[in-house]
């Protein structure tokens, strides 16, 4: 497995490799929902936390640990999503670090972006695509399930969030041999929009 960093695009979204040109728009998108950072994320992109979190992301990108994407809808940045936890030896990659501004939730953006990312991961040799979701995040759990991922279990007290809360993490996955059926259902879902 070798995940290539490239632009991914369909009729709903364009995933552009994250760069400095996206920084200000990402900051604005993250400021659109102040409450979400204290409730559901292990780190914060809001206010004074933006700069250190941006530095962490760009460092991980530079080190090859993460491939970050600006999720674009037309000319507007809708959010961020990433490939991370890339384990080439075992052909496993995680899709995560996803955030969408409130006006881009609940429609085509997430399934369209995840369709592109899973398709790319499997085309690049992935055997397993993983999603890790905060157990408290009912919206994300439902979205990942609706994508066609299988819930495997819950890692109890898996992480300490930036607020000090102990997070339980729900693990989901899609395997390469499941991908054709998952892809077809996603394509039918998106065709209906």
UniProtKB/TrEMBL annotation:
InterPro entries: Acyl_CoA_acyltransferase (IPR016181), GNAT_dom (IPR000182). SUPFAM superfamilies: Acyl-CoA N-acyltransferases (Nat). GO terms for molecular function: acyltransferase activity. Keywords: Acyltransferase, Transferase. Residues 14-149 form the N-acetyltransferase domain. Its EC number is 2.3.-.-. It comes from the Bacteria. It is an enzyme of class 2 (transferase). This is GNAT family N-acetyltransferase.
